[in-house]
Amino acid sequence: MASKRRATSPVRPPPAKKREVVKPENGEDETPHEERSGVVDRRFYPREMTNERCAKYNDGSIPRPIALLNAALLDTRARRRQISPGKSVVHWFKRDLRLMDNHALSLASRKAKDHGIPLVCMYIVSPEDFEAHNTSAARVDFDLRNLELMKQDLAELDIPLYVETVEKRKDAIPQLLANFKDWGAKHVYCNMEYEVDELRRETKLVMQCLKAEIAFEVVQDDVVVEPGKLASGAGKQYSVYSPWFKSWVKYVHEHPHVLKEHLSPTANPSTARDTFSAIFDASIPPAPACKALSTEDRERLTSLFPAGEHEALTRLNTFLSTSKAQNYARARNLPATPGTSVLSPHFSAGTLSTRTAVRLALATTTKSLPALESSHPGLRTWISEVAWRDFYKHVLAHWPYVCMAKPFKYEYTNINWEYNDAHFEAWAAGKTGYPIVDAAMRQCNTMAWMHNRCRMIVASFLAKDLLLDWRLGEKYFMLHLIDGDFASNNGGWGFAASTGVDPQPYFRVFNPLLQSEKFDAEGEYIRKWVPELKDVVGKAIHDPYGRGAGKVAEKAGYPKPIVEHKMARERALARYKEGIGRETANVGGGVHN
Prior knowledge:
By secondary structure, the chain is mostly helical. It is 48% helix and 5% strand. Strand 4 (185-191), helix 8 and strand 5 form a beta-alpha-beta unit. The longest helix has 22 residues, at 377-398. The two termini are 21 Å apart. Residues 1-40 are annotated as: Disordered. Residues 87-224 form the Photolyase/cryptochrome alpha/beta domain.
């Protein structure tokens, strides 16, 4: 791996242990750039997948993981339904950390109540999964804080919440099976995740649980419309958002049951307190060492992002009941204006479901979902932004190789990316000499969150102006953001780098100066996050060295631009054109699946 890769950040987790690189006899390191830079983590995955294998996923020659899971559920349904109730029913929490409107939890509670047996809830803390999936320390802390609150809410219903750390990811399935046996559980429920690792794990669990005479049920919950329900006129999965959203709106309008609220769990028999006393008495484990925050960082993030589904609902209702929802279409692009709901951490952790959000948004008006475009453009725009989360999960399900360090447009793997450590470090630290870029990256490093418009600006700058491998930026976001969600993060970076579904064309390159002038006209956002420029007056705030404020900026220690935008744009266009025009190559020489 490269010796220097990320700038120091208040919320940065400890770096992974360096992997020893075996060099050939001539002394040159022939390890692929994407592996040396950490894009493909060989501790957990093989080398990058070939483009030919991506094509086989595309044409169906290799079955999609979601198809295999659905087939396993369908093939075993009759046998699972014949299994008699045991001594308990289990709900396995993952990214659904809420009691309200939780599909699998509701089903598990009903099963337990129908048979007069207790419901047991559980959550697995998996340090190796956190590392393999680049989960940020901020996100791990947020999840653990959510679990602490949820344990209290469940205890009021006499429902135990068992939280266990399983050090090795390969031990997760055996440990789950051991827990089910210990609790005498014959029925286990969880909500579906759409990443490849999770789909394959659940497929194994369906079959292994059945061998142990346990019915393992995986249900849809994380999306409003489940993958596979929407198709183009040609019967294919949409890869462009606008027609997909039009189809999504039509489907939701014609199938209102998809927004129906799932009942919250009912109380356990009081005897559950005695039966599972050890679980009730146990505390939530601390974050693994690889994802631990300092006390100062944890206190700051706790203040910025209070945990729990009650907080999520409060934020949602405040947003919907004020002018924020009405003005959202305009204000959402202004990073200095508090014009967004800031609910992304809750959507990512599952303390709030997209289903609940859309249902409550529609409850604020008498208009139907299709009619909002003309009657409530702000609300409609917000719902369309929430729906992007569904869209990107549909993409994961249909094009699983995007989970495997491959772009949706896998031919773009052939672009000759830069791997300039100094440029990456400047970008990560917010020291590029482009004020809007630097302000955004410093917000990320301080808050573990960044305004969405700024995410697009910094992503375009990394991929186009610096011509760095976009996957480095994708990984950095996941390692630092509290709302890290693979599907949305991957989709956003694919857009910015022109490598994903519904991307900006490769020849469209954000001009950071114009973006700054348009969306932070008075420089309020820049002055907040780049204090070196607080004394710069007027429009020079957007380009101090090019607009006569160079002496002020230099005296304050603000760096000069690390690249010249016009030159960088021309370089990017030439490199993209060369890359996508090149015959597809067998990149990486191996299979990453």
